[in-house]
User: Fold this.
Amino acid sequence: MGRIMDSVLSFFQKDEWDVRKLGDNDSVIQVGFRGDHGEWDCLAVVLEPSEYFLFYSVCPLVCPPELIHEMAMFLHRANYGLNMGNFEMSLDEGEIRFKTSVRLEGQDLPYELCQSMVHHNVLVMDEYMPGIQCLLNDEISAEAAIMLVETPAVGEA
Assistant:
């Protein structure tokens, strides 16, 4: 294993995450996360030659073809204003995920940076999960789903 993957594994061990190796691939590990609005798998991807660390929350819900456009509008609205990371969706399979990434450029991956990327990632997915769920249940539009998750409740502001 390389130095970046060693740092990633060290973070997950120290932070007490259950790590699963993904087949024979030494550049990807899988972890699970349970938030307030669901549970899902996450992928930690290390590209040692180009010095990238990517972390994905993979939404457990898949968008059906008839809602791809509406979900794309929701995810586009969600991405607007995010200070770190982005939502992405496969237009063919309907897989939705949230990605955070960093290029280390010869630097080590400090525990604090890894923690910030991973925790931010899962918290954003958890925050937007109710909107994704409502939209997939064909209950509301993309605009209404964004308002559901981004508008503070009375008394929170």
